[in-house]
UniProtKB/TrEMBL annotation:
Residues 96-228 form the Diphthamide synthase domain. Keywords: ATP-binding, Ligase, Nucleotide-binding. It comes from Rhodotorula toruloides. GO terms for biological process: protein histidyl modification to diphthamide. One of its GO terms (molecular function) is diphthine-ammonia ligase activity. It catalyses: diphthine-[translation elongation factor 2] + NH4(+) + ATP = diphthamide-[translation elongation factor 2] + AMP + diphosphate + H(+). This is Diphthine--ammonia ligase. InterPro entries: Diphthami_syn_dom (IPR002761), DPH6/MJ0570 (IPR030662), Rossmann-like_a/b/a_fold (IPR014729).
Length: 238
């Protein structure tokens, strides 16, 4: 089916798109949510926003049209469920006004209006039920099918597969025990032994599912051209 790639720029969302193609789906657009103008990153339950400024470049590397929208909402509804996932609710929902999930609804609604043949949404969720139920809810309201091939996969296996698949993703944020500023800019391949060591020592999630690190993807088998990372200074918070 024709599919929109919901990308953050990180390894998971890009690798899931590889699985979509392997399973016969056709990527026709890239969609992404980022912080409002003037902000580099948001503290969001739902979205990875670090590296958001490079998403248009990834869309160019994929030769796909790019849809983007600023995140206006916050985490208003933080429960384990978000409406229903059967598509009974249509359109906007007053009880969830101001929730950041509704920004995803508006983004995918825009994509569907511009490209009516889109049926699937590529989603890189691995372990977060919070993300999964909200994406499923939004997709149901819009008549779209979420495609989450990484869901609940073994993280060590996924990390190994990503490296073997030729994914060139580099760390752009570190927040986990044992991860240091000097690890920024390192590739998954370079970091794999360190991540396994920190997993044994601190129970760090090797795919960063506990927020230990974020990545940005510079190349993968689907890219028509390599994405170049502009050198920048590191920033420490807290």
């Amino acid at each position: 089916m024709k599919t929109v790639a919901l990308l953050s720029g990180g390894k998971d969302s890009v690798y899931n798109l590889l699985h979509c193609v392997a399973n016969g789906h056709e990527p026709v657009a890239v969609a992404s949510l980022g912080p409002p103008a003037g902000k580099d990153e948001l503290d969001s339950f739902m979205y990875q926003t670090v590296g958001h400024s490079g998403l248009a470049t990834i869309a160019q590397a994929l030769d796909l049209p790019f849809f983007s929208r600023a995140i206006k909402g916050t985490a208003v509804n933080v429960g384990g469920e978000y409406g229903t996932r059967e598509g009974k609710e249509k359109g906007k929902q007053k009880e969830n006004d101001g929730d950041e999930t509704e920004d995803l609804y508006e983004l995918l609604k825009e994509v569907k209006e511009a490209m009516p043949l889109v049926q699937g949404v590529s989603v890189g969720a691995i372990l977060s039920n919070y993300q999964r139920v909200r994406v499923e809810h939004v997709c149901a309201r819009l008549g779209l099918t979420p495609l989450a091939y990484l869901w609940e996969r073994s993280q060590p296996e996924l990390l190994r597969e990503m490296v073997e698949a030729g994914m060139e993703s580099v760390l752009v944020k570190v927040a986990g025990a044992g991860l240091q500023v000097e690890h920024l800019g390192k590739s998954l391949k370079d970091m794999e032994p360190t991540l396994h060591r920190l997993n044994k020592r601190y129970e760090l999630h090797v795919c960063g599912e506990g927020g230990e690190y974020e990545t940005f993807t510079l190349d993968c088998p689907l890219f028509k051209r390599h994405v170049n990372l502009i050198p920048s200074t590191s920033c420490a918070n807290g």
